[in-house]
From TrEMBL:
The chain crosses the membrane at residues 30-49, 351-375. Residues 13-108 form the Polysaccharide chain length determinant N-terminal domain. Residues 167-278 form a coiled coil. This is Polysaccharide chain length determinant N-terminal domain-containing protein.
């Protein structure tokens, strides 16, 4: 019985499909007209749209990572190693930065080129920077590490010039900005070295005045042990300060490691203060507590001078080491493919536009054909006096 019920249904479906085909054939002119109109309109629009060209460049970040020096002081004193961020992330951040786009806009004078009619309530330069952001595309190949820079514009020559300006400004920014740990250490040590040098000059002048005034000479060998201890403590303090600066940019302020470093630096400061300001620091000089007042005063000034000299020598060595590591850790960009001047536009894609428009027009034509056929059938039944049964 089920087979008997299924058989009329299949025949009805076949009849419906056949009738549908006949309806479409009857309205083939309508379908063809809509299809042809859509295709011709899309083709005309694709030719009206201005062509957009894409200039591409391939960059390879290169950075030599130092294996010894200041970057390993943390391992020597604390037994830890810090992970290092690759150069690709820094270069990607610079290429996408607003600062770099502003430099390119100013260098190539793109405000009048990109902003034809600037809004009165906004700055034209800001609008030009925003437009330039939409023109630039930066991607990275995870397998090879190559960075691809793309610039799209209606003028192929201008697209190439913008790409070249971006690379040039990128190289300048890499030279100017302190992007590496070694460079940050060098700047920090350079400031400490200059400050110590000025302080040492003041103390040397004071020592000379004291000697001329009091005419006192104290044997310097008696201070050797104290000075060696002072230099050792100072060297360890500088290393801990450098390590603390690097960890503060990675860990949270309440980290146990940061707290441990601060306590270590504070303990060393207390020891240095006792050597510099307390009578205990001069225990290397025999019988100092019983020495004449002039001898004690000379010894105090001399110890300050020697302490500053030891500090200066330690900082100078670390500064020279930081300069060497900065040169080895320098980041630069190797241009694999320079920006090219394209001769074939990437937009508009006429074939794609025509294909999408043709498919859409065909579907619209079929719909209009079926609607027109249904409307004709309704009118025919009404003329013959038959009720409309399309809703049943």
């Amino acid at each position: 019985m089920e087979d008997r019920e299924r058989k009329p249904l299949q025949e009805e479906e076949e009849i419906d499909l056949y009738e549908l085909w006949l309806r479409l054939v009857r309205r083939k002119r309508l379908i063809g007209g809509v299809f042809l109109a859509g295709v011709l309109t899309a083709l005309a629009v694709s030719f009206i749209l201005k062509p957009v060209y894409r200039s591409e460049a391939s960059l390879l970040p290169v950075a030599s990572q130092p294996t010894t020096g200041l970057s390993e002081l943390a391992g020597q004193f604390l037994g830890i190693q810090l992970s290092k961020e690759g150069p690709s992330a820094k270069i990607l951040a610079l290429l996408k930065s607003r600062t770099l786009r502003e430099r390119v806009v100013d260098k190539l004078e793109l405000v009048n080129v990109l902003v034809k009619d600037p809004p009165p309530e906004r700055d034209a330069r800001t609008v030009a920077v925003e437009i330039l952001k939409k023109m630039i595309s930066v991607t990275k190949d995870r397998k090879t590490g190559v960075i691809k820079l793309s610039v799209e514009h209606e003028d192929p020559a201008l697209a190439r010039r913008i790409g070249e300006a971006l690379i040039e400004e990128l190289r300048k920014a890499l030279r100017e900005k302190a992007l590496t740990v070694a460079r940050a250490n060098r700047v920090f040590l350079e400031a400490q070295l200059k400050e110590t040098e000025e302080e040492l000059k003041r103390e040397l002048r004071e020592l000379a005045r004291f000697q001329r005034r009091e005419k006192i000479i104290v044997p310097e060998e008696q201070l050797k042990g104290t000075l060696e201890l002072y230099a050792e403590l100072l060297s360890k303090k500088v290393a801990l300060q450098i390590e603390l600066r690097k960890l503060e940019g990675v860990l949270s302020p309440d980290s146990s490691r940061i707290d441990y470093l601060r306590r270590q630096i504070e303990a060393i400061d207390n020891q240095l203060a006792r050597i510099e300001n307390s009578a205990e620091g001069f225990s290397a000089v025999p019988g100092l507590e019983n020495a004449p007042e002039k001898m004690a005063g000379y010894t105090e000034v001399l110890l300050k001078v020697r302490s500053l000299q030891a500090k200066y020598e330690t900082l100078r060595k670390l500064y020279e080491q930081a300069r060497l590591e900065e040169q080895r850790e320098f980041i630069y960009v190797e241009i694999i493919d320079p920006p090219s001047e394209p001769d074939v536009p990437v937009k508009p894609k006429r074939a794609l536009i025509v294909a999408v428009a043709g498919l859409s027009s065909l579907m619209l034509g079929i719909f209009l054909a079926l609607f027109a056929d249904w409307l004709s059938a309704v009118r025919e039944r009404r003329r013959e006096g038959q009720p409309d049964q399309t809703g049943s």
